Every structure is written in C-alpha cells, then in structure tokens.
Amino acid sequence: MRRFAIALIAVAAFFTTVSNLSAQTVHEVKMVDISLTSFAFEPADITVNRGDIIRWTNAGTLGMPHNVEFRQGGLSGLVGPLLLSAGDTYELTVDDQFIAGLNPYLCTPHEAMGMKGTVTVVETEGSSN
Ligand SMILES: [Cu+2]
C-alpha cells in the first residue's frame, strides 16, 4: 500500500514537472530515511536558476517529520510547518530572497543527525531553457 502511494506520488511529480518545464524548472528534493538515526535530503546539493521551483517531499518510510529551515544565505527561518506524513510537500520559488551562490538549509529535528542541504543559485540572463 505504501509502495503504491509512493509510486502515485512519483507519477504525479513527474507530470507536474513536465507540465512546468516550459516556464520554470522544478527541482525535486526528497527527505529520506537511511536508518532510524540517519536522515538526508536527496539530492543534498542542488543548483538552480532564479525563478525555478524547489519541491521538497517527505519520502521517508519511518513516518518521521521533516522540515526545511534556512539560517544562512538570503533566507531566514522555516519554509513551512513540519511535513508529518510521506507525500507531504513544500514548494518554494527561487525568488529574490535567495542570494546568488550558496544557500544552506537543514531539517530542524534532524540537524544533529546531519540532515542538511544546499541550494546554489546561479544567475542567468533570460530563460535558461
Ligand atoms: Cu528531518
């Protein structure tokens, strides 16, 4: 059942990504559990163009809550509340809050376990695609 749900999410994410390609690239970042004490963003490091969209999805199998918190770079604070269930998502547009270059972030509950990621923003002239 859970596998089926994850497959559905993947299909939905795929079609959403395809439908947005003409305008903005959607970067998918999954929040995954490696073990009971090890969690990660996957991929941990992404490079985006300004105007792109980042979508974080709780893709864990252990029912752990995750979030996204920026403390450095241009953003400060939580992107939203804890994502409690598998399939919960945030979407964030890479707007002027992001600084060019490195914007590090972390998952607040799992900071001590090394659940961290970075968004590297590259400036482009006009459309990148
Ligand atoms: Cu987490």
Helix and strand arrangement:
Blueprint: H1 2-20, E1 26-35, E2 38-42, E3 45-49, E4 53-58, E5 69-70, E6 77-78, E7 89-93, E8 101-106, E9 116-122
Parallel strand pairs: 1-4, 3-9
Antiparallel strand pairs: 1-2, 4-7, 5-6, 5-8, 8-9
Bound molecules: copper (II) ion.
DSSP summary, beta strand count: 9
Shape: globular
Rg over C-alpha atoms, rounded to the nearest angstrom:
15 Å
What is the helix tally?
Answer: 1
Largest beta sheet: what is the strand line-up?
Answer: 3-9-8-5-6
Major pleated sheet? 5 strands, mixed
The CATH class assignment is: Mainly Beta
Using the 3D structure, state the CATH architecture.
Answer: Sandwich
Ligands in the model, by name, code or SMILES, are: copper (II) ion
Tell me the helix content: 10-25%
Low-pLDDT runs of 5+ residues are: 17-21
How many domains, as an integer? 1
